[in-house]
Design brief:
The complex is a heterodimer of chains A (about 130) and B (about 240).
Chain A lengths: L2 H18 L4 E10 L6 H11 L10 E7 L2 E4 L5 E3 L7 H9 L4 H4 L10 E5 L3 E9 L1
Parallel strand pairs in A: 1-2
Antiparallel strand pairs in A: 1-6, 3-4, 3-5
Helix pairs in contact in A: 1-2
Chain B lengths: L6 H7 L3 E8 L7 H14 L4 E5 L7 H5 L7 E2 L3 E2 L2 E2 L2 E5 L1 H4 L8 H14 L5 E7 L6 H9 L4 E6 L3 H16 L4 E9 L9 E4 L4 H4 L3 H5 L2 H12 L5
Parallel strand pairs in B: 1-7, 1-8, 2-6, 2-7, 8-9, 9-10
Antiparallel strand pairs in B: 3-4, 5-6
Helix pairs in contact in B: 1-5, 2-10, 5-6
Classes of the chains: A alpha+beta (about 130), B alpha/beta (about 240).
Chain lengths: ~130, ~240
């Protein structure tokens, strides 16, 4: 249930940014799930529903979740590669789930085996858009 | 638009922490981690609710000082740090299986923000931060997010350490970060130029590492307890 902490960050951040953009009513928030972190959509959505009561400005907000595929770029050989096909144990996947940067400890470039790669896309949770009434 | 939501909850996670002590040192090998971990043990022994957060990702060693093995945080609306010898302890080693964590600066920063956002410290009198050595984006981020953190600047009796220390103090002044004082570690005597408190070199310290009870009985811990009182950390 560590998803709860991230769900809280999303709803709090959405409400704060809506306020900064002078949106009177927050109608929709786009949430990106980076494939690398492997957030459980069901648990995350359940946490959002539970948190809604604490954030009246987001009471009627729809949270639209999209998964962004992970993409990596090797700093050593410039090879670009996806998450699919990279081997990791169940425990390693769990550690990456908590701290996505652990990818550098457990994953490596499939071409040159370097752990020095960039997570170009699909790392963790972010907000992609906000919609509301001014 | 791409909003990173994590920073919005960091203040919330630290809301019930009364004091944050950032143990810093801009040179490696000056005993920063041993100081941070022993300080946390001393505070817990005095009855303070204490947390220790090892933020030195590349050289995480707080778990070695404490002798903490087989621990893992509990998942409960985030991560609850395991309690070891009365200290709530959080470290990257829980997630790295004690393997190397080869991170570039921006990645360290990202990992620290992630852990600050998901760690539920609860109510604490003290949160001791074992800071990354030097000043880089990770160290600057910690100072930015852990507002109100007070710096305990560790140095060693060396011209090099002292010179680097001077520069670090200048920067903390510019950043408006309060400095509790300068602690000279591995000192030859009880007085040191430019230091507010002194911890003498203790040949018995190495043998006590990894054994909290033995560590608390060292001359190092006794000096550190005196220094903590002198610098206003404890009464």
């Amino acid at each position: 249930m560590h998803e709860w902490a991230l769900a809280e960050s999303v709803i709090k951040s959405a409400v704060e940014h809506a306020g900064a953009q002078k949106l009177k009513k927050l109608k929709e928030t786009g949430v990106l799930f980076g494939e690398l972190q492997g957030i459980d959509r069901e648990i995350f959505s359940f946490a959002l529903e539970e948190l809604r009561a604490q954030f009246p400005a987001a009471r009627d907000c729809k949270f639209k979740i999209t998964v962004e595929p992970a993409a990596f770029r090797c700093k050593a050989c410039a090879h670009e590669f996806p998450l699919k096909g990279l081997s990791k144990t169940k425990d390693e996947a769990e550690f990456i789930h908590f701290v996505p940067e652990m990818a550098h400890t457990f994953l490596k470039c499939p071409k040159c085996k370097s752990p020095d790669f960039e997570i170009a896309r699909g790392r963790g949770v972010s907000i992609s858009y906000l919609k509301g009434e001014k | 638009m791409n909003i990173d939501p994590r920073p919005s909850v960091i203040a919330e996670r630290l809301k019930r922490v009364k004091r944050v002590i950032a143990v810093t040192g801009w040179k490696g090998g000056i005993g920063k981690s041993v100081t941070a971990a022993t300080l946390a043990l001393l505070l817990a022994k005095k009855g303070y609710k204490t947390g220790l957060f090892d933020l030195d990702f590349a050289g995480a060693s707080g778990h070695l000082v404490l002798g903490a093995k087989g621990l893992f945080p509990k998942e409960e609306k985030g991560l609850e740090p395991p309690v070891y010898e009365g200290v709530k302890f959080m470290s990257v080693v829980f997630f790295s299986e004690n393997k190397a964590v080869p991170l570039r600066g921006a990645n360290v920063s990202d990992a620290i923000i992630e852990l600050l956002a998901i760690t539920q410290w609860g109510e604490l009198d003290f949160l001791v931060l074992d800071m990354p050595p030097g000043i880089n984006d990770a160290a600057l981020d910690v100072m930015r997010f852990a507002r109100g953190a007070e710096v305990l600047a560790v140095t060693a009796p060396s011209l090099l350490a002292h010179d680097v220390l001077e520069r670090s103090l200048e920067l903390y002044k510019k950043l408006c970060v309060p400095v509790l004082g300068v602690l000279e570690n591995m000192s030859a005597g009880t007085r040191a130029k430019g230091a507010d408190a002194v911890v003498r070199r203790d040949p018995g310290l190495e043998r006590a590492l990894g054994r909290p009870a033995a560590l608390l009985k060292t001359a190092f811990a006794a000096d550190l307890a005196r220094a903590a009182a002198k610098l206003g950390i404890t009464r």
